[in-house]
Amino acid sequence: MQATLEGDAPEDLSHAGSIVDKAIEYMMDQKISPISAASAMLGGCLGLLARSMDDRAVANVLRQALHSVESGELRDLPSLPKQG
């Protein structure tokens, strides 16, 4: 499913997000460090974007992500459970 021209989220975004959450949970259970898990997922995500969008569109996605970091929006996300 594609996003609409108005920029609405695709219908399957919530489902995809749930799968990613489970993958993160699995990696934490496997004692993979958060930085390693995040780096692997980011690399995979960038590869997927590069195969499915042109460079300008990928750059726009990255700009939106950077804006989320700089605005503090990501600080509102729940923290990961402590590894132990």
List keywords for this structure.
84 residues; mainly alpha; 3 helices; disordered N terminus
Helix/strand structural class: mainly alpha
Q: How many beta-strand runs?
A: 0
Share in helix: 55-70%
Instruction: Assess the beta-strand content as a share of residues.
Output: under 5%
Radius of gyration: 15 Å
Mean pLDDT: 87
Distance between the termini: 39 Å
The H-and-E topology, N to C, reads as HHH
Count, helices = 3
Spans of 5+ residues with little confidence (pLDDT < 50)?
1-5
Tell the overall outline: globular
- Outline the biggest β-sheet: none
Task: Give an account of the 3D structure.
With 84 residues, the chain is mostly helical. The protein has a domain at 19-76. The chain contains 3 helices and no strands. The longest helix has 19 residues, at 34-52. The termini are far apart. Residues 1-5 have low confidence and may be disordered.
SSE layout and pairings?
Layout: H1 13-29, H2 34-52, H3 55-70
Describe the structure concisely:
By secondary structure, the chain is mainly alpha-helical.
